[in-house]
Amino acid sequence: MLRTLALILALSSGAAQAQDTAASVVLKERLVSADGVITLSDLFDMAGDAGDVQLARAPAPGRSISLDPDFVRNAAAREGLHWANAGGVLRVTVERAARTVSTSEITAMVEEALFVETGHAFAVNLSNLRQDLYAPLDTLGGPELISFDHDAGSNLFRAQIAPYPGGETLTVSGRAQRVADVPVLNRTIARGDTITAADVDWVRLPESQVRGEIILAQDSLIGMAAKRALSPDRPVRSYDVEPPVVVERGELVSLVYEVGPLTLSAQARALENGGEGQFIRFVNLQSNRTVEAWVEGPGRASVLGGRSGASSVES
Fold first, then answer.
1. Is 204 helix (H, G, I), strand (E, B) or coil?
2. For residue 128, what are the CA distances in angstroms to 149, 155, 172, 173, 229?
3. Could you tell me which residues are beta bridge partners of residue 3?
4. What angle do CA 70, 75, 79 make, to 5 degrees?
5. What is the pLDDT averaged over residues 51-58?
6. How many Cβ atoms sit within 10 Å of the Cβ of residue 187?
7. Is the separation of the CB atoms in 107 and 126 below 8 Å?
8. What domains are there in the chain, each with its CATH number?
9. 169 neighbors 146 (Cβ within 8 angstroms)
């Protein structure tokens, strides 16, 4: 009996001494494996030479796995590391580091495939919004579209995408909608203000919302003046803008009438505001007759033979 008690005391003393000589370690704040295995250095700071000891296979990229704390403590102890688990951790959860292929990247790949197939721009809605793909950190190359099927009648699609060349594919599906790129204003434009290139942004709208009067070309906006106050982020209609006024109502201009080799000129007064290239009414001050003429610029207008049914300029 005394011999047994002495043996127990000796073993306990030896265990205590071994614990005293073991290096104390604590868990890292974030437990991440960069490759296919989980090592002691993935779990503990200052693991030293024991850091390369493998504990388990790592989960798939972007996933996590939980280890039993007793298993971790015993594995560490075998390598001379003492983990007290003072925080009472119930599960040791380790993540697998990965490169992420986001939902937006997947959507962009499908939209590009649709444009190549049809020649039209599409907006894509995935049936599952949580479809991120993950690739191991040590792989090369970006995501690849492995297969693509599109039903033009219903605009439903299905695609297989690999996160990296040779990687396991993910099947995605959803619906596509034809869209148009539409220029919009990025600030409020007051009546009479001229629109500049810095005032224009772009939005994509479903084609069903793009009516015939909506301006689609940026060049048809830049340099035009607002006929009324225009709000930002909304399509601009053709009747919302006009050329900037270069000839104001009541202003005197030089009016030229050209037909063949004949050119006549007279002084005239504008009866309305007009922008460059607009067709407005003038009164010839010499004949006191009203004519319609094209505004060519500040102080200039012309009546070209055959371009209008207006009365000729009488000198």
1. strand
2. 17, 16, 8, 8, 42
3. none
4. 140
5. 94
6. 13
7. yes
8. 22-97 (3.10.129.70), 101-179 (no CATH), 180-242 (3.90.1210.10), 245-304 (2.30.30.760)
9. yes
- Asked if 243 contacts 226 with a C-beta cutoff of 8 angstroms, the reply is no
Two structure tokens written together for 277 = 């290239």
Token digits of residue 307: 């371009």
Q: Which amino acid is at 98?
A: A
Residue type, 83: W
Mean pLDDT computed over every residue of the chain: 87
Exposure b/e, 3-25, CB count within 10 A at least 16 = b: eeeeeeeeeeeeeeeeeeeeeeb
pTM of model > 0.85: no
pLDDT in tens, 57-116: 999 888 999 999 999 999 999 999 999 998 899 999 999 999 988 888 999 999 999 999
Q: Specify the DSSP class assigned to residue 207.
A: G
Q: Judge residue 306's burial from the number of C-beta atoms within 10 Å of its C-beta, 0-12 exposed, 13-18 middle, 19 or more buried.
A: exposed
Contact at 8 Å (CB) between 184 and 233? yes
- Dist. CA 205–CA 96, nearest whole Å: 40
Q: Which token pair is 184? A: 């919009």
The tokens for 146 are 């492995």
The shares of helix, strand and coil residues in the chain, as percent rounded to the nearest 5, are 20, 40, 40
Task: Report yes or no: 175 and 125 within 8 Å, Cβ to Cβ.
Answer: yes
Structure token digits, residue 64: 């996590």
Residue pointed to by tokens 């380790």: 94
Q: Residue 294 CB: number of other CB atoms within 10 A?
A: 18
CA dihedral 69, 70, 72, 73 (to 10 degrees): 110
Q: Cα–Cα–Cα angle for 60, 63, 65, nearest 5°?
A: 95
Radius of gyration in angstroms for the set of CA atoms belonging to the chain, rounded to a whole number: 39
